[in-house]
Amino acid sequence: MVELDSLSNVCTAIKTLFDDANTEVAAHNKMVANLAAERATLTAQVWKFVLEELKTDLAAFNTSKDALEKAITAMTSQITAATEDKAKKAGEIRELEKQTTSIQPTIDGINSLLSSFGFQGFKLAKAASGNSYKLVRSDGSDAKATLSEGEKTFVTFLYFYHLLKGSESETGMTTDRIVVFDDPVSSLDSDILFIVSSLIKGLFDEVRDGTGHIKQIFVLTHNVYFHKEVTYSPKQKGVSPNERTYWIVRKPGLVSKLDKHPTNPIKTSYELLWAEVRKPERSNLAIQNTLRRILENYFKILGGIEFDDLCAMFDGKEKLICKSLCSWVHDGSHYAHDDLYVSIDDSMVDSYLKVFRAIFDKSGHSAHYKMMMADAFVELPAVVAEPAAVVEPTPAPAA
């Protein structure tokens, strides 16, 4: 006899599995059908989790952010107040400049300069408008049409010189400026040229000391004498390399070319002769003529000292060398005595230089030699004379 077990339990379990699967399928289908809403819900849940995890850091960030926003707000208010105060102060400055602006100090200053420089035939006066100038004679008549070119140039320079310390308008008195002097000595005589260069050098000192509103000065000129005057400074060795620069403008074609020089490129011929003497690699062939030209310029032309008097201070070989140096001046530039000819080598050059220096020493002009040699000057060792031996006289034999 076969007994079959009941399958009801198995069927119930299978049915339960199908029901659970159908439930999950229905839930999935529902989610798929409403995917946008489900995604938004998931995103919200993720951010909620992140916020919960970073709650402490977020609180610290918000605190710091609030502090920065308060600081920015306070600084913005301060900037606004400072800007308003600056505009107010600028307006006050303009009002004060209008009260202090006057052409009378310029008139007085230029007239004082004209009087001290000997220009007595005309002066500046205030024009009818009250804010401009005019040139008048001592009797009050207009002098504009009868001024010479030199007088016009000088008055123009003086006006420009005073303009540098002021302004053409009330609002430009305190502005920084760069000044260009373009050949200011055209048609001027030597006396006025010296005065102009002195005034410009005074502006150099103001720029160097930072006492005015001029920050940089350019001086352009074709006049070599004016260049020498305006560039001379008793503190030449103490001048910083960046304080002044020297340029030469050349125009070989259609374009101007600027050549920069580390030192002043404009020198006198006398200075160039001494520069040749100072050079350690001097030419043996040219040194005799160089020394001769220096002696000619300094003693013969400027001092009126005859070369015979110079050579008379020497003896022996040194006297021969002195005559060799002076022979061209004494007897003519194209003639020299045959008995004064000496071949030139290094030892002979040293002899020439020794006698050349001795000429200045023995004639009392050693200070000039030292000045012109500058850094190349070498002190000679002191010579101490040895005491002469004392010889006792031999007594005469008794009679």
Topology of this structure?
Blueprint: H1 8-33, H2 35-53, H3 55-100, H4 104-116, E1 122-126, E2 133-137, H5 149-163, E3 177-182, H6 190-209, E4 214-220, H7 224-231, E5 246-250, E6 257-261, H8 269-278, H9 287-302, H10 307-311, H11 316-331, H12 346-362, H13 366-373
Helix pairs in contact: 4-5, 6-7, 8-9, 9-11, 9-12, 11-12, 12-13
Q: How does this structure look, described?
A:
- The chain contains 13 helices and six strands.
- It is mainly alpha-helical.
- The protein folds into three domains: 28-99; 104-238, P-loop containing nucleotide triphosphate hydrolases (Rossmann fold, 3-Layer(aba) Sandwich), CATH 3.40.50.300; 269-376, no CATH class.
- It is elongated.
- It starts with 7 loop residues before the first helix and ends in a 26-residue tail after the last helix.
- Residues 329-342 and 383-399 have low confidence and may be disordered.
Write out key terms for the chains shown:
399 residues; mainly alpha; Rossmann fold; 3 domains; two-stranded antiparallel sheet; two-stranded parallel ribbon; 13 helices; elongated; disordered C terminus
Helix count? 13
The low-confidence runs, each spanning 5 or more residues with pLDDT under 50, are 329-342, 383-399
The gross shape turns out to be: elongated
The name of the CATH superfamily of the largest domain reads: P-loop containing nucleotide triphosphate hydrolases
Strand content: 5-15%
Oligomer: single chain
Strand order in the sheet with the most strands: 1-2
Question: What structural class is derived from the secondary structure elements?
Answer: mainly alpha
* H/E element order: HHHHEEHEHEHEEHHHHHH
- Please tell me how large the radius of gyration is: 48 Å
